[in-house]
């Protein structure tokens, strides 16, 4: 029988790197460290080799369709399939400035949401029956980050489609571009709006992905890893990367297979993603203090 395969996107540093490290210690199979930049990826592999951990490496820029295609072909030819896929790669352009430019907002939404659609299209068909997919979202991905009633209703609709989510992402970008963005539409005074929109879109998409893959008993969940000391937060946070990898590793290796389509908090609590009145939204003062 062919070996099991795990893949983590954006894993040359940060939480993705720690998930690869944990998988290398605990997952019985091949673990792929992937990065958009070859040199950064290989440096990360060397770091793990010093710990006597030996991941496979492949370049993978999720925002570059050609790169995703090359990676898909490589996995198909070498292994035939994927058992664990972690959609971790993301950016928070201008996050700590709290006032993004349009280009930063577009880049954030492109990488954090639209690129995951490319991964879904090209890599999900390789995920084997009974596999697991984990989307690393954020507290910014809980529905309570959205205050616009129309979008709360539309994103909560049980007949949600991927088109609804794309329109949500484009609604924000358009409103930013044409100067009609209303800060009251987003929690916390409209701060970090693009990142919130990208992660709400990702967590909403998780629910659709779960439906799509249910017949093959593949578990798809999204989660918030906590506020973690990484480059994304310029080192601000309550947890280091290995602590932050604990719940992702639990979800990938130990959680019951029937945990599906859930939004999971860093302490393993399963939250009601639809509870738009809840207090789970990101408060920018937590990184400003
Ligand atoms: N840190 C936190 O407090 C926190 C809180 C909530 C959620 N999260 C989420 O946790 C995940 C990991 O974040 P982190 O804090 O570990 O951030 P990080 O240290 O900045 O790492 C992000 C990783 O994603 C990669 N990446 C970015 N764009 C990519 C692309 N187009 N294709 C492939 N890889 C790409 C980066 O590669 P480069 O090195 O080339 O830039 C890097 O390896 C993200 O989804 C983030 O949104 C983090």
From TrEMBL:
Keywords tagged on the record: NADP, Oxidoreductase
Protein name per UniProt: Carbonyl reductase
Molecular function terms, GO-annotated: carbonyl reductase (NADPH) activity
Entry-linked InterPro entries: NAD(P)-bd_dom_sf, SDR_fam
Family, per entry: Belongs to the short-chain dehydrogenases/reductases (SDR) family.
């Amino acid at each position: 029988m062919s070996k099991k395969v795990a893949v983590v996107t954006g894993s040359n540093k940060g939480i993705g790197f720690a998930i690869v490290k944990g998988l290398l210690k605990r997952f019985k199979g091949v673990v792929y460290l992937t990065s958009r930049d070859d040199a950064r990826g290989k440096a990360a592999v060397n770091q793990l080799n010093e710990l006597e951990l030996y991941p496979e490496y492949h370049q993978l820029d999720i925002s570059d369709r050609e790169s995703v295609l090359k990676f898909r072909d490589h996995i198909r030819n070498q292994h035939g399939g994927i058992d664990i896929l972690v959609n971790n790669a993301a950016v928070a352009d201008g996050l700590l400035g709290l006032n993004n430019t349009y280009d930063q907002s577009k880049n954030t939404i492109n990488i954090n949401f639209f690129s995951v659609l490319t991964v879904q299209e090209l890599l999900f068909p390789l995920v084997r029956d009974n596999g697991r997919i984990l989307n690393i979202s954020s507290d910014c991905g809980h529905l309570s980050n959205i205050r616009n009633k129309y979008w709360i209703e539309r994103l909560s609709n049980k007949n949600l489609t991927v088109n609804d989510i794309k329109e949500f992402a484009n609604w924000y970008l358009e409103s930013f571009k044409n100067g009609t963005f209303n800060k009251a539409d987003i929690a916390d005074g409209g701060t970090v709006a693009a990142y919130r929109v990208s992660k709400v879109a990702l967590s909403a998409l998780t629910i659709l992905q779960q439906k799509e893959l249910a017949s093959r008993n593949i578990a798809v969940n999204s989660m918030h890893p906590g506020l973690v000391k990484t480059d994304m937060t310029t080192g601000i946070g309550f947890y280091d990367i290995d602590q932050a990898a604990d719940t992702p590793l639990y979800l990938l290796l130990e959680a019951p297979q029937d945990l599906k389509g859930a939004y999971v908090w860093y302490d393993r609590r399963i939250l009601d993603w639809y509870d738009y009145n809840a207090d789970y939204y990101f408060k920018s003062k937590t990184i400003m203090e």
